[in-house]
Structure formats: structure tokens, C-alpha cells
Amino acid sequence: QVPGLTKRFSQGILERLESGEVVIGDGSFLITLEKRGYVKAGRWTPEAVVEHPNAVRQLHMEFLRAGSNVMQTFTFSASEDNMESKWEDINAAACDLAREVAGKGDALVAGGICQTSVYQHHKDEARIKKIFRLQLEVFARKNVDFVIAEYFEHAEEAVWAVEVLKEAGKPVAATMCIGPEGDMHDVTPGECAVKLVMAGASIVGVNCRFGPRISLKTMKLMKEGLQAAGLKAHLMVQSLGFHTPDCGKGGFVDLPEYPFGLEPRVATRWDIQKYAREAYDLGVRYIGGCCGFEPYHIRAIAEELAPERGFLPPASEKHGNWGCGLDMHTKPWIRARARREHWENLLPASGRPFCPSLSKPDA
Ligand SMILES: [Zn+2]
């Protein structure tokens, strides 16, 4: 804890949002821990919580230090359909890790579930709801503060997830991994948002699959859909940390660079400041990230919105606003970069003279 830099919270997620506070989410786990050697791409399951708890703990710590107000349990795909008998231990251990770190900064713990691997095959509502319920029972036992249904590409399955999550009596957030074209059955973002709120979600939005710009475009459509239906909900956005202007309906997974060659697309911290500002101006108050969204991106959200929030995260001790730390540099041309105009207007070169700037999605 750094006196003066952090603010201690004691309220739940809905109290915070209802009082107009900005809640900063966390960022990338699977994609980041794959790069660090703890997750295998393909099945993307989080067994690292039991195999390498220190690696998961460290990443939670970095997000907390960067300003995250929510520690999401690392339970993506940790469901019975993906992990057989190991799923229960992994969910329990992920809750303990998230709670341990959250307690060091008074952050909230959110239990997270995602779309199943089986919906696309049989759409068996009872069977799929049972898969969600098993994870929820662990979250309830571990007393998480709220629950998130994330990464759904089918509105119907997302609605089932919300209906199950409501059973625990905790606030429910629901985000879909869709772009402006809507879900896999052409349900528009506005219609998706309405369905999720009608099913009982208090917070709705998008996560993953698309970069900051497209995610905000989708959020705008969700907001308009809710307004047209006369519904009220808190808005949440957790975009990729990668730029995806060339994506089709399926998002970044259809790009030939996914998942091992995405580095040239990484957003800068300045891109993320812009994202945070635009999300805020749109009325989104739960702002975080998904794949590729590193702790320094989370810090960028906290720094951009520091005037509104009135405080900075601990990690800002090591980061001058708009590069001002560079004014200590010995070389005058580098010192000259210690200003907002430089970073705000920079068009970063890729350093790859033979590369195209856009790709063609496979699907
Ligand atoms: Zn993601």
C-alpha cells in the first residue's frame, strides 16, 4: 500500500457502479501465461492455478498494483466439459488465489465462467446449465463477491449462463465476445444486451475477440439497444490488447497470426488511455481488458481516469504521466519526448518493412 496513491474501497460491485465510480477490471491471463510458459495453447485451460500457483499469484499482483479493482478467478474453461475430474480443484484453488491477492488491495473477487465446448454440438439446455452450476457451486462455497459470465458467442447460451449465475444471489455481469455484427446467429449487440438484462444481468458488455476500437463500437450498439428497450444496466468493456481493424465476425481467432504472431498488433499504453477515455465518455464504468491486455495497459486506464477518480495506482510511482519521467534523461532529444503531445500523436512504426499492415481472416 502506498499512502496517497491508493483508495480503499469497502463496497460491493453494484454499490460502486451505482455511485458513479469507475471500476477497473483486470487483463490477460491465458495468453500472457502461455507466453510465460504456464499455459498450453489449443485447449487453453488454467491448470496453472494448481501446477504453478506462484505464476498466477504474480500476475494477479501485477494487475492489482496497476490499478485493477477486480481479481477475476482464473477459471476460464475450468469446467467439467473441458477438464474432467480436475475441474473442481482448479476452481477452488483459483478462488483462493484471487481472494488472497484481492485482500492486499481491497479489490473484489469475481468468479468467472465462459461458454461451454458443447453448446455448438447439442444445445442441450439442462446439460449445459449443469456444467455452469457445478462451477457456480464452488464460487458460492468460496464466497466470491460477484460473478461474471464472459466470452459467449451465442446469445442463447449466455442467457442460460446468466439464469444459472442468478441462483447464487450475487450480482451478475455478462459479456459476450461479439463485434458490431452480433452473435453467431445474427442477434445484434443491442438485442444481446436486452436479452442478458432481461435474464437478470446487472452489468453487460463485451470481452475479448476484438480490439479497443471495435469493442467500443459494439458497446455503443449495446447501449442504444438498452435505451430503445427502456432498460437500465451498467456497461462493461474488456477488449483485447491487440488492434483488429481487419477482423471479420469471428474476431482475432480467425486471423492467421492468432495466437503466436500477434505481437505487432499490441496496443501501446497511449492507445489504451484513449480507449479508457472513450469508454468513459460512452458511459461505460467497468473498464478492463482481455487477451493481450497487460498490467501496464491496466495502469494506463487508471492514469487516464485519475482526474475523475482522484487517485493513482501504486504502479504509477514508477511511471510519470505522459512520459514525464524522461525529463531526467541525459540526452536532450530523448528529454524532448517527456510531453503529452509526443506520445499522443505518435504513429509507431512496426519495424517490419516487408509486412502488410492488415491481414485476411481465415474464416
Ligand atoms: Zn480474451
From TrEMBL:
Checking InterPro entries in the record gives: BHMT, BHMT-like, HCY_dom, HCY_dom_sf
Associated pathway = Amino-acid biosynthesis; L-methionine biosynthesis via de novo pathway; L-methionine from L-homocysteine (BhmT route): step 1/1
Q: Which UniProt keywords apply?
A: Metal-binding, Methyltransferase, Transferase, Zinc
Q: Identify the residues that the record assigns to the Hcy-binding domain, covering every copy.
A: 11-305
Could you state one GO cellular component term attached to this entry? Answer: cytosol
Q: Which domain of life is it from?
A: Eukaryota
Recorded hits in PANTHER family, A to Z, give: BETAINE--HOMOCYSTEINE S-METHYLTRANSFERASE 1, S-METHYLMETHIONINE--HOMOCYSTEINE S-METHYLTRANSFERASE BHMT2
Q: What does this protein do?
A: Involved in the regulation of homocysteine metabolism.
The name under which this protein is listed is Betaine--homocysteine S-methyltransferase 2
> Species name for this entry?
Loxodonta africana (African elephant)
The gene is: BHMT2
